[in-house]
Amino acid sequence: MSYINPLTKDSLNQAVLMITPYFTFQSTSDPLTIIQSFILGIVQALTEFLPVSSSGHLVIVQDLLGGQTGGDAAFEVAVHMGTLLSILVILRREVASLLGGFVSAKFRAPSWREEVTFVLLSAIPAGIIGVLFKDELEHSFGNLKGVGVALILTGFLLLTTRNRAGTRQALSIWDSLWIGMAQAVAILPGVSRSGSTISVALWLGIQRERAAKLSFLMSLPVIGGAGLLKGLDLSEQPVSSAVLSSLIIGATSSFIFGLFALRLMLRWISRPSFAYFGVYCIVVGSLSILLAL
Fold first, then answer.
1. Cα angle vertex 283, ends 277, 285, to 5°?
2. In whole angstroms, how far apart are CA 116 and each of 21, 85, 95, 99, 266?
3. Phi, psi of 24 (to 5 degrees)
4. Helices H / strands E in the chain, number of each
5. Rounded to whole angstroms, how far apart are CA atoms 39 and 257?
6. C-alpha distances out from residue 76 to 57, 263, 277, Å
7. Are 196 and 202 in contact (CB under 8 A)?
8. What DSSP line would sit under 243-291, residue for residue?
9. Buried b / exposed e across 125-160, counting CB within 10 Å, b at 16+?
10. pLDDT confidence of residue 139
11. 206 or 108, which is more confident
């Protein structure tokens, strides 16, 4: 059967280079081009809010575009900051209620105290892991095979939520810790943060729309904290204008398209088809493993 040519990473990369000649890197050390940064920002926006792992897709797309998959954690954080801004815009009432409650009791909704407790406690597991294992996590962005395995696991988790339709609105400390641990695991590229946190919330019996909004609200301190840590790292070393431009373009692109993706996700979560994103994750994860061989 030697006449059959197997689908290899090199052959796929060559096909991509043929249709995207202006997207490729000059070398593995070159910064992202304007078009690359813009495209990756779109990828981040669409996959951050849909339960398919934005970090995993960034690793895959960068690999296909001929870029380096490892060492680009700064760009990863930059585009996450763009989607963070889109959360602040779309969920501005919820965010204003949470923050305003610290200033005056008249801004506090009936569930203010438990929501603040939830957001703060749920950030602790991810914060601990992010600080203690920051270097190891950054290196994980170069492991395409690991991304594939993580996507497959995410897919199976999503499929388990098909018949889960909770009605609970109230939150407990245990909800914060369980969903917070799901968010901590999702630091690994390939594990969907929104997918894992919403899935765990559904298994805990929390109502679907509430689970989705809580998932995005709880991401604010984690993404903001990651951005702060990476910003401190960048401030200690010179950054070229080309690299800085790629970070700004990527963040801007992810913000604009994130506005659209978040609105879409908040409408989609009420449907059972949310679970079928799991099929997509399993397929993409399997293809990623093949690319890494």
1. 100
2. 48, 19, 10, 9, 21
3. -80, 155
4. 13, 0
5. 11
6. 11, 22, 22
7. no
8. HHHHHHHHHHHHHHHHHHHHHHHHHHTTSGGGGGHHHHHHHHHHHHHHH
9. bbbebbeeeeeebbebbbbbebbbbbbbbbbebbbe
10. 63
11. 206
Q: CA-based Rg of the chain, rounded to a whole angstrom?
A: 19
Q: How many CA atoms lie within 13 A of 249 on its CB side?
A: 16
Dist. CA 283–CA 285, nearest whole Å: 5
Q: Render the burial of 53-63: b for 16+ CB within 10 Å, e for the rest.
A: bbbbbbbbbbb
CB contact at 8 A, 49 and 264:
yes
Q: What is the pLDDT of residues 164-180, one digit of tens each?
A: 878 898 899 999 999 99
pTM score: 0.76
CA distances from 220 to 47, 88, 119 (A): 17, 8, 9
Encoded tokens for 157: 């988790």
Q: What is the pLDDT of residues 168-212, one digit of tens each?
A: 988 999 999 999 999 888 888 889 988 999 999 999 999 988 998
Report the C-alpha gap between 244 and 112 in whole angstroms. 38
Per-position DSSP letters for 23-63, written without gaps between them = TS-SSTTSPPPHHHHHHHHHHHHHHHHTTS-HHHHHHHHHH
**pLDDT value, residue 174:** 93
Distance CA(280)–CA(107), nearest Å, equals: 41
- Write down the residue that tokens 């954080």 correspond to: 77
Question: 């109502």: which residue's tokens?
Answer: 207
